[in-house]
Amino acid sequence: MAHCASLHLSLAPTTSDRAVSFSRAARTRLVRVRCVSSPSKVASSVIERSSSPSKTGKWQWKFDGNSVNVYYEEHSGKSSENVKNILMVPTISDVSTVEEFRTVAKDIVDREGSINFRATIVDWPGLGFSDRPSLNYNADVMENFLIQLINSPDSPVKSSEGDLIICGGGHAATIVVRAAGKGLVKPAVIAAVAPTWAGPLPIVFGRDSSMEARYDLLRGTLRAPAVGWMMYNMLVSNEKSIQSQYKSHVYADPNNVTPTIVQTRYELTKRKGARYVPAAFLTGLLDPVKTHEEFLQLFADLEGKVPVLVVSTAGAPKRSKAEMVALKGAKGVTKFVEVPGALLPQEEYPLAVSEELYRFLYEVYMADR
User: Fold this and answer.
1) Measured between alpha carbons, how far is 271 from 50 in angstroms, rounded to an integer?
2) CA-derived radius of gyration, the chain
3) Looking at the DSSP assignment, which residues form a beta bridge with residue 31?
């Protein structure tokens, strides 16, 4: 349900139309949307398209006595009239980066109409171009970051209370939904792109006590000095492994995996502290839930509270696809669509994703007029 480098470990595997009312502090609106798939004509992939941000910067996340510099970039359009703000959060993985959402952001903000958009893409702490301190990363830590980012007065995310659109991919999408269900963040709209909830090893090998002990051992080894880097280089930080994962399940079309994509992702794995978050991600510590039922309940908790778009993919791996499809018509899901791609459609087929996102936002905000 999430992408990672290929691992060779001695781990034994375990055996329609919808009408939804949304309450807001001072109003109630009715949103009517249709559950549809993308057009039959497959959208062309857009790879390595230049999408320079309007602004870049670092925001300081305070956690456990640490000040972590978090990288963000802002994409703005020409119009300053009736601008809605979108926070885009990359998929959590060993090669997570703001770059995966750049073309989506650029396409959204370049559209001019009665509603305009500004997009801010933020790297997770420990990933992308953010600082990578040796924290004890888990799903709660990542949720804490998201809450602080959205609610802090010095946040780079420009929005008034309850007027922020959040778009996340993979595990990030599920963490957003979890935080919103708890009332810790109050977005106006949520878009979950290829949402996932289980890390690579737990989905394959399960989570019984013997497996959890092995995950703990592997995690400790990956975090250790010297030997940790050696194992990380063998399992994750090498071009052959990255190319293999992208061709096998991250991208739907292996021909879209270019040398440039592989090289830029490989460079991310060489940054100081790069192994700490992947050690947690691979072994399931970043999983927002532990069961399929909990996953569905997260979305159900948002029923009638916030419009939710789920973007599934036609070429996702079997198990990940099953979880995405389970959200079609599920409680709390306002609209379900399918686009080309596998686990990273926002990077492989960004224009298909931006089109569905723009269409949903237009439907939501036009219904409110």
Assistant:
1) 23
2) 19
3) 20
Q: What is the pLDDT of residues 309-324, one digit of tens each?
A: 999 999 999 999 999 9
| Range in 107-111, 235-239, 364-368 with the lowest mean pLDDT | 364-368
Handedness of CA 156, 159, 160, 163 (dihedral sign): negative
Residue with tokens 């839930």: 289
**Residue 239, pLDDT above cutoff 50:** yes
Helices 171-181 & 139-151, crossing angle to 10 degrees? 70
Residue 345 burial (CB count, 10 A) = 30
Residues 339/43, Cβ–Cβ less than 8 Å? yes
Q: Measured between alpha carbons, how far is 294 from 289 in angstroms, rounded to an integer?
A: 6
| pLDDT tens digit sequence for 322-333 | 999 999 999 999
Q: What is the pLDDT of residues 260-301, one digit of tens each?
A: 999 999 999 999 999 999 999 999 999 999 999 999 999 999
Sequence-ordered list of residues with C-beta below 8 angstroms from that of 158, at least 6 positions apart, any chain: 85, 118, 120
List all residues 6 or more positions away from 260 whose beta carbon is below 8 Å from its beta carbon: 48
**Are 183 and 162 within 8 A, CB to CB?**
no
Instruction: Give the largest Cα separation in the chain, rounded.
Output: 59
DSSP letter, residue 140:
H
- Of the candidates 284, 352, 278, which has an alpha carbon nearest to the alpha carbon of residue 315? 352
d(CA 159, CA 70): 19
